[in-house]
Design a protein that fits this description.
- By secondary structure, the protein is mainly α.
- About 65% of the residues lie in helices and about 5% in strands.
- The chain contains 22 helices and 5 strands.
- Helix 2 crosses helix 15 and helix 18 crosses helix 20.
- The radius of gyration is 24 Å and the shape is globular.
Length: about 550
């Protein structure tokens, strides 16, 4: 826990300072001031993820990247010291005693579970090794030929590598997702005002969904999973967007900045791209106001965020968007063969649908009942049924809105449509629940919350309060049970290490151009590890890899 707290302190300071520095420029340029601490922290996460990605294109993401980061943060402190002091003093005064206590408790609870727990399967399959490649080499041409899942290229791994800090803690830290969860959880503390003000607003329903989602992660939040990172940021964007609508924000600046954060989600996971439907609102606002300069500035911001992600895609796999084989733009020698890209895309879809016999793919009448019956837990089945009902209600409501439009409702419908479109894309592409929990929860919570407020008035929150109390008691009990199963783990100083899943029984080392590779090793501790259908492009690892058709017999001298 101690190592996690120290790691978080560094993450907090660097994300806050970089976020504060950039948003200070925005304030001066566009006359809009962000006041919330979470805004600075998330802005910092976006900026530093882009920084880590850009850095990886030229060098390893390790101590050198952090030295530059510390220097930049120091310059921000020197240049904006007066503004920083004023903000920190004001923020401390504005925070109530209850908020301070709540945040302290959250820090301890989230830190406890981040320091221990279990890793999701994909962390041992490729997350941890992707981070180690970044720590050791930055980026390597054709890396996807030795480890195919490296082509998934989530920017979350670049930020994880920046903050892994093995040279400080003696182990590669993986506390970033816990820190992101802490930001989202702290936002949800404002649910306490529902009882105090006897009023419930739409963003409260989104926060209840976020609380439920966070309660599911306690046992695996230590895992540097891109799925968790993108779901947390999606919750954050929707909640902040709704809060802006509720306070009737008329400036285009915060909506535009949230859309830049939406571009960021695409770099975390490509399938999150439909969150950018929200762009409609700030685009209309900016065009109406003829703010051409602002439009170019936001386009530049979005480009700086996504450009290194696209460049990394091409360098790692030879494809601009992997595994989308229809966008074939580059003819490089390290390119993953189109046949393998198509097979990977096909496998993602069928496994997400719970299809393992390859016969039901494409037939909704076959795969959906099987997926619903075999993949989902009982609670998840209830949530999916609630989403189906919510879609039907939303469809009818949208028709009514088109026939008899209410101007004040279009903003809400934009959010509902964005969430619904994201849900449908998830449902009919690769519907593993961990790929889409934000859509699953937000769709039903927002639609039912919207109608609850219409039917019972926002000033009658008693049903919501009772539901919240039941949720908190239920999930509180689960967290206590989880804590009781791990309190004996020796993780009060160090964080649990990456699992060593490279057992001698199935890992086979082999030599190529004087380098030892580990066939079937995919975790953190043996590098380079992965497959064997590749050749080196030169004598050094840094030269990269290209595809070569090989089999165990040709490498190890045994029968296939």
């Amino acid at each position: 826990m101690l190592f996690v707290l120290c790691n978080w302190l560094y993450i907090f300071i660097t994300t806050f300072l970089t976020g504060f520095g950039v948003l200070y420029v925005v304030e001066k340029k566009f006359s809009y001031k962000c006041k919330r601490l979470d805004a600075y922290l998330v802005a910092g996460l976006v900026i530093l993820t882009a920084y880590a990605q850009w850095f990886s294109l030229f060098y390893r993401v390790n101590i050198e990247a952090n030295i530059i980061l510390v220097v930049v943060c120091g310059l921000i402190v020197v240049c904006l010291r007066k503004e920083l002091v004023i903000y920190i003093k004001d923020a401390w005064k504005l925070a109530s005693k209850g908020q301070r206590i709540g945040i302290f408790i959250l820090v301890i609870v989230v830190c406890y579970f981040t320091s221990r727990g279990h890793f999701v399967y994909d962390t041992n399959l490729y997350h941890a090794q992707a981070i180690r490649w970044l720590e050791e080499y930055g980026i390597v041409k054709g890396l996807a030929n030795i480890q195919s899942r490296a082509a998934y290229n989530s920017s979350a791994f670049c930020l994880s590598a920046l903050y892994s800090m093995k040279y400080v803690f003696g182990q590669s830290m993986h506390g970033l997702q816990g820190f992101m969860a802490l930001i989202l959880a702290s936002m949800c503390l404002s649910l306490g005002k529902v009882l105090k003000e006897k009023k419930v607003v739409l963003s409260d329903f989104a926060k209840i969904g976020a609380v439920y989602y966070l309660s599911l992660l306690y046992d695996e939040i230590t895992s540097p999973s891109s799925d968790y990172a993108v779901m947390i940021i999606l919750f954050y964007i929707v909640i902040k967007w709704l809060e802006l609508l509720e306070k009737k924000e008329v400036s285009s600046v915060p909506y535009s900045l949230l859309c830049v954060a939406g571009v960021y989600t695409v770099t975390l996971k490509l399938t999150a791209g439909l969150i950018l439907i929200l762009l409609i609102k700030p685009v209309i606002m900016l065009l109406k106001e003829k703010k051409w300069q602002e439009i170019w500035v936001y386009l530049l911001m979005g480009t700086l965020v996504i450009a290194p992600y696209l460049a990394r895609n091409v360098i790692i796999s030879g494809w601009l968007l992997y595994p989308f084989e229809h966008l074939d733009l580059f003819n490089v020698d390290w390119k993953v063969p189109e046949m393998l890209v198509s097979a990977d895309a096909y496998q993602i879809k069928i496994w997400g649908k719970g299809i393992h016999d390859y016969e039901g793919y494409g037939n909704v009448a076959v795969w959906f009942p099987n997926w619903f019956r075999t993949v989902l837990t009982f609670t998840e089945k209830l949530l999916i049924l609630a989403d189906i009902v919510a879609l039907a209600i939303l469809g009818v409501s949208l028709i009514v809105q088109v026939i008899k439009p209410k101007k004040e409702e279009w903003d809400n419908f934009l959010v509902f449509t964005t969430v619904a479109a994201s849900y449908l894309f998830w449902q009919f592409s690769a519907p593993l629940t961990r790929y889409g929990y934000a859509y699953i929860l937000l769709l039903s919570m927002l639609v039912f919350g919207w109608y609850y407020r219409k039917l019972f008035s926002e000033k009658k929150p008693y049903v919501v309060v009772v539901a919240m109390l039941i949720l908190f008691l239920w999930k509180g009990y689960v967290l206590v049970q989880g804590a009781l199963t791990t309190y004996l783990w020796p993780c009060y100083v160090k964080q649990v290490e990456y699992e060593s899943n490279e057992g001698e029984e199935y890992v086979k080392p082999f030599e190529l151009n004087g380098h030892i590779f580990y066939y079937r090793a995919s975790g953190y501790h043996k590098l380079p590890g992965g497959g064997l259908m590749f050749d080196m492009r030169g004598d050094k690892i840094e030269d990269g890899f290209k595809f070569a058709e090989k089999y165990e017999g040709s490498v190890f001298g045994v029968n296939r």
